[in-house]
Structures are given as C-alpha cells and as structure tokens.
Amino acid sequence: MFAIYKRELRSYFITPIGYIFAGAFLAVSGILFSYTVLQVDSSGDYTYSGMYTYFVLLLAVFAVLLPILTMKLLSEEKKQKTEQLLLTSPVSLTGVIIAKYLASLTIFAGTLAINSFNFVLLYIYGAPNTAIILSNILGLFLIGAAFVAVGLFLSSLTENQLIAAVSSIVAEGSMLLISLLVNKIELKFFRVFLKWFSVIDRYSPFTGGYFDIPAVIYFLSLSTVFVFLTVRVYEKRRWS
Amino acid sequence: MVEIINLCKNFGDKRAVSNVSFNIEEGEIMGFLGPNGAGKSTTLNIITGYLSASDGRAKINGIDILENPLEAKKRIGFLPEQPPLYPEMSVKEYLNFCYELKNCTLPKKQHLREICEVVKIVDVYGRMIRNLSRGYRQRVGIAQALIGNPEVLIFDEPTVGLDPKQIIEIRNLIRHLGKNHTIILSTHILPEVQAVCDRIVVINKGVIIANEKTENLINAVGGSKRLVAKVVGPEDMVLGILRSVTGVKYAEKLGRRDTDSVSYLIESEERVDVRKPIFYALAKASCPIIGLEGDEINLEDIFIKLVDSAKKDRQKRPGRSLGDRSERAK
Fold it and tell me: Which chain A residue's Cα is nearest to B47?
C-alpha cells in the first residue's frame, strides 16, 4: 500500500499535474487573499467579513482545481490497464484505493499548508483572531478531503480523464451551490435530502471560529462514504 | 501447483467460462489455447484474482484465491495481455515500485539485477518506459512478473505484436523460465504452444475441449497422415486411381499449380504408408508424379478438429466429417 502511495505522490511531480494544481491554487488564492482580506484590513475590519469572503471563494476554487488532482487517479490506471498490476498484487483492494486517496490528499494538504503562510502577513501587520483562522483552515481541509473522495469515486467510473474532471467539477460545484437553492424547495423530503449534501451549511460554524464536532464527523463520513463507494465500484466490476 | 475446479464466469446473461477444470503440476509449462474471445483471459484473470468467479474455485499451491487472496497472489507472477507499465517511469523506477508493491523480501539490488539479466533489459534499465520498443516493453512486463520469484507464472498472449525475432526470443525466455517455474502460457498462436508447452488445454466458447500432453494430443487427433502429390494426367482419372489405392482414406484435388500438373491432397489410413502403392498405380496409368511431399498434421488442424467436434457434440447436428478438409486445404 505504501508503494502505491509513494508512486502516486511521485507521479504528481513527474507529470506536471502536481505543479499545475499547486501553482494555480496558490496563485488564485494569493490574488483572492490580497483583494479580500488585505483590502478590508486597511479599514480595520478584516477579522470576519473579509476572511469569510476569502474562504468561501476558496471553496469555489477547490471545486474547479481539485478535480485536476483526482481526475487521473483511477481512470488512467483503467485506460493503461495498469490496474491489473495493482489488483493482482498482494495488496487489498481497499489498500489500493486508500493509498490513492491519501496521495491526492497529501498534495492538497501540502498546498493548503503552504497557502496558510498568507496569514503570517496578518500577524505581522495586526492581531487577527487565531481561532477563526485555524477553524477555517480545518474546515477547508475537511471539505477538500471530501471533494478528493468525490473526485476519486468519479474517476473510478470512467477511463477518460476529461469526463472524470468535468463530472467532478459539476458534482463539487453542485455541492456548493445547493445551499442557495435548498431552502426554496417546498418538498420536505427533498429539502432534507439535498441539505445533507450542502457543504456550505456544514462549513458555516468554522467561519465563526467554532470547532464544530458534528460538522467534522459529517465531512469525515462524507469522505469515508465516497472512498467506500469507490471500493464498491471495483468490487462490483470484479463480481459482475 | 495450480488447481482449477469447475470455474464459471457470467457477464450479465452471457456465460464467458463454463465449468472449466484443470490441474497443472509443478514445473509444467501449460499452453492455454483458444480462439479470440474463447474465455482464456477471463480464466486467467480469475486465477490471478483480478476477477471473481461466479462459481468454482481456483487454488494456487493449495491456497484458494478467494479465501486467502493475498497469500495466493504472492505465489503468482502475471503478465496481462497488455503489459501493465507506467510510461512516465523509468524501467528502474518501475521495477523498484513492483518490488515494493509485491512486498518482496529478497535482496533488492541483486534480485532486480538477476531478473534484468534473465529478460535481457540491462541496457535499457535507466530508460523511460515510454521510449521503449514493443519488444522491450514486453520484457519489462515479464520482468515485473518475475519479481519475488513466484512459483507460478501466467503469461497472457506474450508475443502479440512482436516481430518474428522478438517472438523467438520471448519463446526461448519462457522455455528457460519453465525450468524453475510452473507456467501458464495463453495464446491463440498454435506453433507457440507446440514449441514451448508440455501440456495443452484447449478452450472454446468458455468450455474446455481438450486437456492433453502436447505429443498425446497430436497423436490422438493426428493418427492419419496426409500427402500432397503433383501429378500429370487427366484429373478424373488420377483422382479415381488415387481413391482406389488400398490404404487411401481420402483424396481430393487441391488445384492446378503448374501448367501441366495438378496437386492432390491424399489422406491415408492410420499408420499406413501409401507412397509406394500410389507411385506404382499412377506409373501404370502413365500419370507421372512430379512431386510428392508429406503434409504433417499440425496443431492448427487439431484445433479446428477439436472445435468442430465440440460444436457437433453441443449442437447434436451433423457437421463436417474429419475427412472433409477441402475448406482448410484451400
């Protein structure tokens, strides 16, 4: 399992995908940071509203950029038939999928960690609320982890990277936009059902600086469910 | 070493493999023969644990692939139809990855060097896989299968797409590996199994239709002998004479090859040499034989014969007789 994790991690930097993701994420995030948080800073009111906008916009960036990271995870293995090597090696199927998931998550977490240096500026020029920053970063990480799992799952359904990427952007974008629509739905069953996928609703406590345990459990379960579903896709293919 | 018991695999409504059973002894090279789409790859994929059987069992050295997949997989080296290579890696990186993936405990450097020497890829060890030729890629695929020194090696159509020189090299390599491993070699190229394998299992439409030692199979089906004779003379008369010779089971015209002679296919009864009687009979009728050559029965014929007789058994309708070779002879 560790061998697959290592290979996957290396492949992000042998191919340009790792650099494209990290570069694009840091560039866009840097621009957003300077236009939201740093701008508001001058009026003396940066601590909440500016940061909130920044973090919500970052979620939209996730929906577009994270699929770049996950699109080839399993689709490429299927296309090149290298999955036969992985699935006939003495490694469990769950081990293979988790190794792939963790490799993507590592690149994402690493980029997010580098991105966090933006906040150092706030400490140099002011006294920001550390709880808000930390809880937001944690919230972002959890949503990102869930999106990586969604992308991994969709990548297992096709052998075309482009289809995997586009479907992931649509799925992750919908999970963000659903919060705008969900309260307007009359039918209670649908409202409750769709609300379950609305990540923004779950994310809001983090923006206020709260460490919301139910939300943490929600995001972890969401990730687990999609990793599990990915395993099931392979199991089903094996048996059908 | 490998025990396959009543293996079945359904894809939806379609039954791809039906009650396949065979055993392979330690150190044996088994040729797994069948036309395209016969169920060869499906069976191999089940044995290697890539697919699960709908019914039946596959055991490697007594270990069931379904009950204890990790232990069973440790004992198998598999080269799928398309070698599972990562083009963005170098051969060295790839083999190191496979070494770790298979949790190999043999001394790494020495083990990988030995494998590279056996499959002759030492000179491309540092090169990127994407830049390698088809033949070298195949060799890297075989190298991957050898990592961990597994007891059973499974090669799925290893010579497809290779040039004749590469085909001979890969065959020699498989023969060499057969000294220390149990091998399953799947192919639809008949001379390949004839050249390499001790035992042949023939599969068609998901059903095993033969499971014999190579020489037994050839003897069992190929008891009679065929000759091709070039004769000068009126065709009907020559055919009449040929058919009247004692020991000739069957004779037919193959076609005019030269300006004045015609070729005939003659099939003799089992273990009867009809060359002399034919010579005297035709000489007597003043129809000179200007060429006579033996047409040894080969695996191709055996294969077609087996497929035909299996079809007849299944459909229970009159099919072609064994002597009806006109279609093939053309």
Answer: A88
Position B323 confidence tier, pLDDT thresholds 50, 70, 90 = very low
Domains delineated in chain B: 2-220 (3.40.50.300), 224-295 (3.30.70.3190)
User: Nearest CA of chain A to the CA of B252: how many Å?
Assistant: 49
Integer-rounded Cα radius of gyration of chain B:
24
Identify the band that residue A112 occupies on the pLDDT scale cut at 50, 70 and 90. Answer: very high
- pTM for the structure as a whole: 0.81
Query: Contact, B162 vs B134, CB < 8 A?
Result: yes
B70 → closest Cβ in A11, A81, A90 = A90
- Separation of CA B311 from chain center: 20
**Per-residue pLDDT tens over the stretch A156-177:** 999 999 999 999 999 999 888 8
Q: What single DSSP character describes residue B269?
A: P
Contact B79, B145 (CB under 8 A): yes
Q: Are strands B14-24 and B55-60 parallel, antiparallel or unpaired?
A: unpaired
**Annotated domain spans of chain A:** 2-239
A90 to B85: CB separation less than 8 angstroms, yes or no: no
Residue of chain A whose alpha carbon sits nearest to that of B100: A3
Q: Do A81 and B82 touch (CB under 8 A)?
A: yes
- Do B88 and A14 lie within an 8 Å CB cutoff? yes
CA nearest neighbour of B16 among B207, B198, B179: B207
- A180 contact B CB<8A: no
Spatial separation of the C-alpha atoms in residues A165 and A147, rounded to whole Å: 12
Who contacts B143 (Cβ-Cβ below 8 Å, separation ≥6)? B91, B95, B115, B116, B118, B119, B121
User: CA-CA distance, B128 to B133, in Å (whole number)?
Assistant: 11
Residue B10's closest chain A neighbor by CA?
A240
Distances (CA, A) of B238 to B37, B230, B280: 43, 10, 12
